[in-house]
Amino acid sequence: MSLLSLDAVHSFYGHIHALKGISLEVNEHEIVTLIGSNGAGKSTTLRTISGMIHPQQGRILLEGRDISRMEPHTVALAGLGHVPEGRGIFPKLTVRENLEMGAFTVADPDEIERRLEYGFEVFPRLKERMGQYGGTLSGGEQQMLAIARGLMMNPRLLMLDEPSMGLAPVLVELIFDIIEGLNKKGTTILLVEQNALMALSVAHRGYVLQNGQIVLHDTANNLKQNETVQKAYLGIE
Amino acid sequence: MKRFLKSMNVREMLRPLGQMFLFSLGSTIVLSALMLVLALILDKTIVGQTLFQRLNVSLYTYTLINLPQVAIDGLTIGFVYAAIALGYTMVYGVLEFINFAHSEIFATGAFVGVEILIALEKFGILSGASLAMAYGYLILAIIAGMLAAGALAVTVERVAYRPLRHASRLVPLISAIGVSFLLQDMIRLIESLTTGQYNRIMPTFGNFDHRLLLGKMTLGAAHITLGVSIKSIIVIVSAVLMLVGLNYLVNATKIGKAIRAVAQDPQTASLMGINVNRIISLTFLVGGMLGGAAGVLYALKFTRIDPFVGFFPGLKAFTAAVLGGIGNMTGALLGGIVLGMLETYAGSFMGVFTMGAAGTEYKDIFAFSILILVLIFRPQGLMGEHVAQKA
Ligand SMILES: Nc1ncnc2c1ncn2[C@@H]1O[C@H](COP(=O)(O)OP(=O)(O)OP(=O)(O)O)[C@@H](O)[C@H]1O
Ligand SMILES: [Mg+2]
C-alpha cells in the first residue's frame, strides 16, 4: 500500500476548475516530484492534499485513511507536513518560536528539544538567528526556516512547494542536498519544483502536470530522457 | 516542581509590570506638568483671580494639591480601560475585525458580579461578613463575572461571527453591532423580569469605601488630606494581576504562541496542526473574561450600573486600543492608561480653568477627539505598524 494516493481528484477555486482528475501515488521512502509550468496546478495539488481546499470529487488516502474531507490541522496530525509556497514564516515570531510551532502537536518538551537540535544540526545558520524575528531573515534563511519547521513536525510525508524559489545557486545545491539527506534518513518527500532538472536529479519518480491534469509519469531517469520533458521543462532542444 | 520553576519565565512576568509602571509614571508626569504650566499661566488672568477670591488659594496651589488624587483616579479608570481594550485588540489580532459587542460582554460581567453580591446581601451574608470573607465574596463576584462574560463571548463568536468568517469585512461588523443591541435589550429584559428594575446598585460591604490616608499637608490657608480609596487600590491591583497573567499566557506559553501564530498567518498555523477555530474561541474566551472582570471592577468603583453601562467604557476602550495600535497588546495597555489619565485630568481641571464654562461633563470630548486625530494622523496607533506590513 502506498503512503499517499490520490484517486481522480477534482478541485475548484470558485468556478475555476484547477485540478481535473489527478491520480498519483507516493510510496514510503520515495522522493516524488511534481513538475509543470506556471499555473499547471502543482500548488493546488499540495493544498488539496493538506486540506486547505477540499476536492469536489475523488479520494485522497494517507496510509489508507481518507483525508479528503479533513481540516488542515487534522491532516497535519495524521502525519502530513506541508511547507507551502511562499514559505509562510510567522514574521513576528522568533526563529525559535517558528520552529516550536512546527512541533505544536508534540507534548513532550524533551522531544521538542531533540527536534530543535536536529533542525539546528541541519541548518546551523538558524541556530545563530534563533532569537531574531522570522520576518527579518533573508529569503534563503526563511526558506531554511520553513523546511526546518516542516521537519519539526517529523511528518510521515513532507511536501515541499518550490523550496529552491528565489535562492542563489549555491543555496539551491544545499537545499537539494538536504532533501536527499532527509530522504536517506527515512523521510518520504513530495517535491514541487520549477527547477525540473534539479528535481529530477534527486527524485525517484516524477509526474508532469499540465493544465490540471497529469500528462506523464515515469521514473525520474526516464523523464529526464523524455523528449517532450526535455523540450518543455529542461530547456533542451 | 523543579521543572515547573524552570519553565516559569520570570522575565515575562516582570516585563509588563515595568511597562505598566513606565506608562503610568510617564503619563502622570507629562499631564501633571501640563496642568501646572496651564495653572501658572492662568493664575495671572481673571481665572486665577476669581479662584483666589473664592477659595483664597492660587490656581497653581489648587492644581498642585489636587494632582495626586486626580492621578490615582485617572490610573484607576485607565486600568479598567486597558483591560477592556485588550479584548478588542486580541480579537482584532486574530480576526481583523472590531467586536462591537465587547461593550455588552463587559456589561454582562458587571451584572453577573453585582447580582451575585446583591443576592448575598439579601440573604444577610454580606453584612455579617468578616473582612477576609468580604474579599472572598468580591473575588467570587469577579470570577463569576469573568466566567459569564467569557462564555458569552465564545457563544457570540460561534453563533454570530463564525458563519460570516468568509463574508466581506463589513458583514461581521454589522452583525457585531446587531449583537450589541440585542445583548443590551436582553440584559434589560432579564433584569426587568427577574428583579423588576434594570438599574442595579453594587452593595456596600467590606472596607472598600474606606480611604487610606497617605498624608496631610497645609498650604496657606488650606488643609489637605491625601488619600486613596481602597476600591481604587483593588481595581488597580486586580487589573495589574490580570494583565501580567495575560502577558504571560500570550508570550511565554505554547498556547499563547499559537494565538500569535494564528494572528499572523492562520493558514500556515493550521498546517502546523493548530486548530484555528479553537484558538479563535480561546481568544474570545480570554478577551471576554478580561472584559467581564473589568465590568465587576467598574461596578465596584462607580456603584451604579444599567444595561447601557458598557457603551461609554466600551467606546473609550476601543479608542484606547486604536490609540495604542489596534492588534498590539502593549499598545492597548498604553492606550488605556493614557486615555484614562487624560480624561480624568481634563475632567478634573477643565471646570476651574474655564471658570465653570466647560465642566467635567465635557470630558468625553477628549477621548473622541483623540480617536479622530489618531485615525487621521497616525492610523497605525502609537505602537502599531503600518497595516500594510501585517499582511
Ligand atoms: N486562490 C485562487 N483563486 C482562484 N484561482 C486560483 C487560486 N490559486 C490558484 N488559482 C488558479 O489555479 C490554477 C493552478 O494554480 P497553482 O497555484 O496550483 O499553479 P502552480 O502549478 O503551483 O503554478 P506556479 O508554478 O506558478 O506556482 C491557476 O490557473 C491559478 O490561476
Ligand atoms: Mg505554485
Descriptive report:
The complex is a heterodimer of chains A (237) and B (391). Chain A is of the alpha/beta class and 237 residues long. Helices cover 38% and strands 26% of the residues of chain A. In chain A, a hairpin with a 2-residue loop joins strand 9 (205-210) and strand 10. In chain A, helix 3 (95-102) runs parallel beside helix 6 (139-152) and helix 4 (109-122) runs antiparallel to helix 6 (139-152). The longest helix of chain B is centred in the N-terminal third of the chain and has 37 residues, at 59-95. Chain B has a two-stranded antiparallel ribbon. A two-stranded antiparallel ribbon of chain B has the order 2-3. Chain B has helices at 2-7, 10-43, 46-55, 59-95, 102-122, 131-161, 170-195, 230-252, 254-264, 266-271, 276-302, 311-324, 329-353, 364-377, 387-390; strands spanning 200-201, 211-219, 222-229, 304-305. Chain B has 15 helices and 4 strands. In chain B, helix 2 packs across helix 8, helix 5 runs antiparallel to helix 6 and helix 5 (102-122) packs across helix 11. Classes of the chains: A alpha/beta (237), B mainly alpha (391). The interface between A and B is medium-sized, with 24 and 18 residues. The structure holds adenosine-5'-triphosphate and magnesium ion. Magnesium ion binds next to helix 1 of chain A.
Which features would summarize this protein structure in a list?
heterodimer, A: 237 residues, alpha/beta, Rossmann fold, four-stranded antiparallel beta sheet, 26% strand, globular, B: mainly alpha, ABC transporter involved in vitamin B12 uptake, BtuC, two-stranded antiparallel sheet, two-stranded antiparallel ribbon, 74% helix, disordered C terminus, binds adenosine-5'-triphosphate
